[in-house]
Amino acid sequence: MKTLQVQVKDDYLQRVVGGAKPIHAIAELIWNGLDADAELVTVEFARSPLGAIDEIVVTDDGHGISYAEADDAFGNLGGSWKRPGRKSRRHKRILHGKAGKGRFRAFTLGHSVIWETNYSDNGALSSYRIHGNFDRLAEFRLEDPQRDGHRKTGTAVRITNLRREFESLTQPDAIAEITETFALYLRNYPGVSIVYDGRPVDYFHAIVSECNLEVAIPELAELVGENPMLTVIEWAFKTEKRILLCDTNGVARDEIPAGVSSTANFTAYLKSQLIQDSVDENALQLLELDPRIRVLVESARKTLRSYLRSKEAEKSADIIEQWKQEGIYPYPDEPTGPLDQARRDVFDICAASISNYLPEFDSSEQKTRKFQLRLLRETLEERPEETLKVVQELLDLPQAKVAELAELLRKTSLAAVINAAKTVADRLNFLRGLEILVFDPASKEALRERSQLHRVLADHTWIFGEEFHLSVDDQSLDEVLRKHLKLLGRKDEVAAPVLRADGSKGIVDLMLSRRVPQPRVEEREHLVIELKAPRKKIDQKAMTQIQDYAFAVEADERFKDTGTRWVFWLLSNEIADPVQRMARQKDKPLGLLYESDDGKTRIWVKTWGQVIEDCKARLKFYEDHLQYQPDCETALQYLRRRHSDHIPECLITDEKNGSGGSYVRSDAASAPPMG
Known about the structure:
Number of strands: 21
Radius of gyration: 29 Å
CATH topology of the largest domain: Trna Endonuclease, Chain: A, domain 1
Distance between the termini: 29 Å
Helix content: 40-55%
Number of domains: 4
CATH class of the largest domain: Alpha Beta
């Protein structure tokens, strides 16, 4: 048995792990198998007797990981053998990965990961296992290789002690996303198969239509060379409507929202030398910051929008021609220019959808239909985007969903339904915006602790738990006591100053309180949060400060015998090594710095990555059902609208300059929870 140490800092590894979506982690493991020349990759979910997923296994029949290569494969992040221009060893396929991050994505799913690999060693087969643990990301343990009777090479990745339930990975949306991601690769290499949860990934029969479009970008002609290509595939299943950013070989490297409204279920694959260059230069994480990529993406969206509009217009051509013959079409003259034609195309799509989804429309009187079409034209021209979106969504509802909506509206109003959905969307936008605030390099450096971060969080205390409400914001320990006594109904008691051990007064940032569900109604729990600016590490000085607060409360006789629990958090982006050691004590939960003998006082150290990840987990159910995924620009717009006075100037000036913000990517935006 030998141990490998990854030559990179822990906080970087935590960001690599913390920001990955579960399905993207699965995709990375599949890519690892394909890069190893696998002809078959299987993804299996083992369940407990109660039906919960308790193990995820990704198996491939590739060439395995030789023991001699393990040091390079697992000991150096960024030093992978998959360098630019290289192809797979056996079948000379295009490689997907080369930065060595794929193996760390497995820890997005579980705390324990074991690679069981079989490889050819001078004509004989050998096998060994590689052990990794979420709590020690920079360390891998390798068993000694053994000669055995395996007939095939390959690797099985076993993920256990899962970090949470991953039922979403077994839903139809999961296999749909895997199909989208690997469609072009499977088409390029027809001998390759992927089996996901017992079902072969069948991209061929899932395709309704396919079209290759050239994206013309004159202003980037010298940099791009030949024009980029956009392959648009329409699927037989429901999709999230994404643009996959691909290298010149069509291998998906990243994804962005399509940003195009359409009733079609499609995925667009954008292939460009610019993306290929970013991959070769290890600059993939900076794509959103590259102005050339922004021009490329916007041009691709224009091309995509034009294609989808013309496709929808073709479908409606027969209906429109019939209306013209009947004399009820509200555009009697030919279009006068491109803008007039575009308006007419939008009307044709919307009106044809109404005709298709509402059979009674065609059976109504000619005079009535003419009036309705004229009214629709005027409405679309007044507020085209809003009207088209609402009509398309309503018409796209299956009959069962229409019935569900009608039943729901008998018990509540549509406005209430919209408000509930908007509340969830706003929270998701804020979480994404909070990631930008505390993780983006420019924002993190400029963000002021009390005048900005405190003010923003005071309006969003739900991130610390739905049961809490704000009691004290940026006040002294004296005010903490006054608020505590008031909550207990002891308003008339004189609150003498609460002093720290050195006799000084302390200032706490936030105190949140909740009533603990107990037979005694006066039992409460207070959460006292000491915030540090994101650029500041939590060091021993900060730890001493929070301990002083806690011990001052614990020693004050007015806090005793009240049935109240006090929880103190020390919160920032990073934790210095001495404090990390204190937070990793034997037989104590990870992150717990102190607990009193009676259990009524606890001190925790937390990271923003941990808090944000916990919030995402709480909102995951609503996010999945709302099917809403905020992007960076939407999140920035939310912050500017709600907190323009309390966010760094760099996040406001970017909007004025039209750059959209110098923001971090979601896969680098959070660190894993400590406990």
